[in-house]
Amino acid sequence: MRIDLHTHSTASDGTDTPADLVRKADAAGLDVVALTDHDTTRGHAEALSVLPAGLTLVTGAELSCRLDGIGMHMLAYLFDPDDPALLAERELVRDDRVPRAKGMIAKLNALGVPVTWEQVARIAGDGSVGRPHVASALVELGVVPTVSDAFTQEWLADGGRAYMEKHETDPFEALRLVKDAGGVAVFAHPAASKRGRTVPESAIAALAEAGLDGIEVDHMDHEPDTRARLRGLAKELGLLVTGSSDYHGSRKTCVLGEFTTDPEVYGEITRRATGAFPVPGAGGV
Known about the structure:
8-stranded mixed beta sheet
């Protein structure tokens, strides 16, 4: 089985619609794909409506968190999407995205970059606006060559010249909410230092003690030596190890199935979940 547990659609900051994403996942030879848009489950219904036969969808979301001033992301799988407490927290995060984006635009304008809210809103479309949309605007303006080049201290990285904070959930609270909603929690790209500061291993250990299920080890932002170190840490802490593409369509260079999750780990994730269950495709429409 080929299993990719981290992808994004136009419901957040990807460039493929949920329908196109699952079709491409099928064409890429995946057996299982998780749709994990940022702080939203809005793309799930569309993906399920056209899910190809032979492809299974894992419903999920990537939750925006912050610990001691350091941004981090929590992949939540197979939770009850209607759980009121988790839904309310996701809405708090999403509602803060627009004023945050406008704040970044104001900072960029002060730096002489003629980006506008209208440009960023056009790029975001119906998705939850985020830094990648602002980064794409910088690419359009020729300020940086790629989206990744916008995530530096010069521009949009944590603490960068045009960075703005937004409401983000304490990861221990996020973990509690996901668990209470019957979900499984995996720390996304925990050592992706090119994105900015990362939390120390002691924090990962504390999260493991609090019930964290796993860490995303095989990821494009982890070098081979980092993956080996994280694999050892996961074994020490009794955490599951996942691998994923973090696919964003044309917004990033990664491809579907670039990294995958072991079928035994996937099986354990599905066994632990009680809020929702993987959905096998029936051919869609």
